[in-house]
Amino acid sequence: MQEILTATDAADDSPRARAARLVASAPFQRAVVALILLNAVTLSLETSASVMAAWGGALHALDRTFLWAFTAELALRIYAFRGRFFRDPCGVFDLLVVGIAWVPATDALSVLRALRALRVLRLVSVVPSLRHVMEAMLAALPGLGSILLLMALIFYVFAVMATKLYAEILPEKFGTLGDSLFTLLQLMTMEGWVDDIVGPVMERQPWAWLFFLPFIVVSTFIVLNLFIGVIVESIQRLRAERESADARAAQAAVDAGAAEAHADARALLGEIRALREEVAALRAAGRG
User: Fold this and answer.
1) 13-34 burial string, b = 16+ CB within 10 Å, else e?
2) What does the angle CA 55 – CA 115 – CA 123 come to, to the nearest 5 degrees?
3) Where are the domains of the chain?
4) Which of the residues 20, 126, 157, 201 has an alpha carbon 20 to 30 A from that of 45?
């Protein structure tokens, strides 16, 4: 929130500026975090049939209270920051999450009841460390897109080969291209890959490991590390940019302080010179 609190807001004393300072203050942010965590507890309690049977009415009332509190908080943020609120991705996300909760959850839209759990994700926009990680992941999307395209090509090539090689041996796993793609996805996660996939195939074709082992190495280890590397690089770059911006702001503050001190010194010297001239004039008048 501090990112959209400008110097004008900090210096202004209008009601809108005071609201902006209130929203960006640490106590207000801690209160919002506490409400989100309490709402997470009530949402988890609603998944218990026994708890709902005993306290369902109270939990629904609490959930409604939390919704009104979040709505009031968003209204205050929109009033305080106006257009800047809608230029902040986290603000737009918070608005969508709270707005969805106000849509009536009828039988046709029963999924909206489950979407109330999205409110817990508001912690991402409130807690600075989580917000920085999310910003880094968003900044890494172009690089991740290239890796996803590479993975899609690898999956397609290996799926076509697997369908042609093992459709007759294990038709339930490699009978069609779609089956092969799903099986290779399971193979990438290494969930039951020996007993369910590789083992049955190798009973008929002992050299099948020459196909499966390269796929596991490429998809599970190399591509996964590429994903991690892109995200880590994005986090480090954003951190370096943030530290550089903080250093520039600190240097600007130092320069401004030095300039102000220099101006004060010059004004003091001017006053001293004027005083000396007055004293000299008085002395000259006394001699005359």
Assistant:
1) eeeebebbeebbeeeebeebee
2) 90
3) 2-126, 142-240
4) 126
List CB contacts of 89: < 8 A, sequence separation 6 or more.
138
DSSP 29-43: HHHHHHHHHHHHHHH
Closest CA to 34 of 79, 69, 68: 69
Predicted confidence pLDDT, tens digits, the chain (288 residues): 545 555 445 556 788 888 888 888 888 888 988 988 898 898 888 888 888 888 888 988 998 899 899 999 999 999 988 888 888 878 888 888 888 888 776 655 556 667 777 778 888 878 877 877 777 777 777 778 888 888 889 999 999 999 999 988 888 999 899 999 999 988 888 887 888 888 888 888 888 889 988 898 888 888 878 888 888 888 888 778 777 777 777 777 777 777 777 777 788 888 888 787 777 777 777 665
Give the CATH class of 2-126: mainly alpha
φ/ψ (deg, to 5) at 107: -60, -35
Predicted structure pTM score: 0.60
**CATH for 142-240, among 3.40.50.2300, 1.10.10.10, 1.10.287.70, 4.10.400.10?**
1.10.287.70
Gap between the Cα atoms of 170 and 135, Å rounded: 44
CA nearest to 4, candidates 96, 85, 124, 122 = 85
